[in-house]
Amino acid sequence: MIIKICGITTIDAACAARDAGADLIGFVFAPSRRRVSVAAAAEIARQVAGVGRVGVFVNQPLAVVQDTARRCCLDYVQLHGGEPPAYCRAVGWPIIKAMPVGPGFDPAAAAAAYPAEYILLDSLVPGQAGGTGVAFDWRRASGFTAGLPGPFIVAGGLTPANVGEAIRILRPAGIDVSGGVETAGAKDAAKIRQFVAAARAAQEGGETCSPA
Fold first, then answer.
1. Each residue of 35-73: pLDDT tens digit?
2. What pLDDT is attached to residue 131?
3. What does the buried/exposed string (b/e) look like for 18-42 if buried means 16 or more CB atoms within 10 Å of the residue's CB?
4. By mean pLDDT, which of 120-129, 173-182, 199-208 is the weakest?
5. CATH code: domain of residue 87
6. DSSP per residue, the chain
């Protein structure tokens, strides 16, 4: 199972994620309080080795996405908007395609249309593309995740205290957290360690670690 710490804006936060055992760090290039400049993300990528890099985009021009991916040495491009399947095919990088879980959502049909390495299931909050801190109904979602044509990642409202439950219910290929490992809007190294430890314990069938 992969663990992604998203909303990375500093070298210290990137190092904390890597050192805690996260597999991926995420740079948000879309409008957000966690948005990072391409230059800053490229510098973090240059200085912090040993962890995968994901760029998060929302309905941005294809050329901008591709240029950013090259400059920041991204391993994945995560698309959080209404990008159509043809756009995903044209990116030229491995894709994580976010899909909001809401009423009437047919994940199997939606996922089948996209050439993505991972489908990311996130909470549906009108007017927001992600990073809401709101969890969707995991037990209800467990009824349809088995029908997904490929691996999926769970995001939305995860914290060190509840990530173990999400993993035990949904058995995802990955998990994605941002606000759940922050204190006063900044990445908290202790919470990142707690989150990764709790996720790994749940993955292995052990008890999750409680936040200090």
1. 999 999 999 999 999 999 999 999 999 999 999 999 999
2. 53
3. bebebbbbbbbbbebebebeeebbb
4. 120-129
5. 3.20.20.70
6. -EEEE----SHHHHHHHHHHT-SEEEEE-SSSTTB--HHHHHHHHHH--SSEEEEEESS--HHHHHHHHHHTT-SEEEE-S---HHHHHHH-S-EEEEEEE-TT--HHHHHHTS--SEEEEEE-BTTB-S-------HHHHHHHHTT-SS-EEEESS--TTTHHHHHHHH--SEEEESGGGEETTEE-HHHHHHHHHHHHHHHTTSPPPPP-
Residue positions annotated with a catalytic role: 6, 122
| Number of domains the chain is built from | 1
Domain limits for position 82: 2-203
pLDDT tens digit sequence for 184-208: 999 999 999 999 999 999 988 744 3
Specify if 133 maps to a domain: yes
208 domain residue, yes or no: no
